[in-house]
Amino acid sequence: MSNTNDSNVLPPHIALFPSAGMGHLTPFLRVASVLLSRHCTVTLITAKPRVSAAESSHISSFLSQNPQVKHVDFQTIPFHHSNPATTDDPFFLQFDSISRSVDLLRPLLSASSLSPPLSAIFADLAVASSIAPVAAELGIPNYVICTSSIKFLCLAAYLPVLVADPARLGSNSTEVNIPGLTPVPISSIPPPFKDPDHLFTSTIVRNAKALSKVSGIIVNSFDWLEQETLAAVNNGRVLNSLPPVLPIGPLRPYKTKNDTGKYLSWLDSQPEESVVYVSFGSRTAMSRDQIRELSKGLEESGSRFLWVLKTSKVDKDDHKDEVKDIVGDSFIERTRNMGVVVKGWVSQEEILQHPAIGGFVNHCGWNSVTEAARRGVPMVAWPQHGDQMLNAEVVEKAGLGIWVKEWGWGAEVLVSGEEIGEKIKRVMEDEKLRVMARKVGEEARKATGLDGSSEKVLMEILELLEQKRN
């Protein structure tokens, strides 16, 4: 914020508008926490019904911990099933419902409804096109928050160009060329992007076309981590119509109620850097066959482990089977002194910052990548869907972990327990890899520290939005 003692300057009032899923909600709540620490007024816009139970509980918890946050909760127009949906993914369907319901926000965000009046809206990329006219009507700046890597942002921004020429994403292509970036292997492109009619693809294309109208694109990344990509996009080499890309990460966690279960006390009793943490995020469900191979891999690695097990895409459906029904009584018995298997939500930030954690087997959701980066925890990158292969490329290039490209997308290949065990052993024992991961952690902390690159970007955004008293 401004260093002046001008009593006529008010901190900005910023509305935050996430889309569906914990992968989108989490960075928005972290941004909210950062803004509150800078004395900003914050309004959180949420859509209901929520897709997952985790979203509901995290929104409620955040609001109860931060009663000064204003809350606008609106009911979406349900997805109309006569529409030609190309997916049954509940999160993609909710993206569409939220986007089509944004008009309902106009009266809720007006100067007569919110005091002080809004200074800006920070909206999810998935609602960029629909929120733009609302921001214009209110006469305030509109920023997009991209919840993925800068690398994926570039692909998303360029997707309208690629979709307009289907051959570029066709079966005869081996790589995709985005100006200013190293070529992207066609295998790393999210499969839905190869179908221009897919709901996810049409959502990204529609919103990518609106990016030229926003004031800036805020990303949970930092200059050092994606330096070449950031330079290319901000020098206009990717698309000359894009606004500035503004890295303010890695975002710190926000305070939550301490409902951490028994796993943290178990970690307290383990030697330093001896435990591999295994988690595939809030919306990845592995097949039973792959779960069995993963259990074999954990045993074969000889490492202690904390494994978060998920068997359904939406957590409301994830309570049907007990852990022993999925991995077997014999596995639980054999590994009783080696590891813990957890079903349900965990505090991943607390786990990754625990001194007992020495490695992380993960899907490369961007929140997980930035959390590992903040702590310098080496990763086995195992992308499952969406942006995750491009994120895995960032992990590999930065030296934060290893990525076995032959494992493909989640369900494409049944990866053997022997291979999994071998990669876990490498991440837990390769000292060179551990040193490189620690270096990433040092650079992450520098970026968000005093005079760090991300800290400076954040301050510049807030100074632009400071309000003058009449």
TrEMBL record:
It comes from the Eukaryota. This is UDP-glucuronosyl/UDP-glucosyltransferase. Belongs to the UDP-glycosyltransferase family. PANTHER family: GLYCOSYLTRANSFERASE (PTHR48048), UDP-GLYCOSYLTRANSFERASE 708D1-LIKE (PTHR48048:SF76). InterPro entries: UDP-glycosyltransf_plant, UDP_glucos_trans. Keywords: Glycosyltransferase, Transferase. GO terms for molecular function: UDP-glucosyltransferase activity.
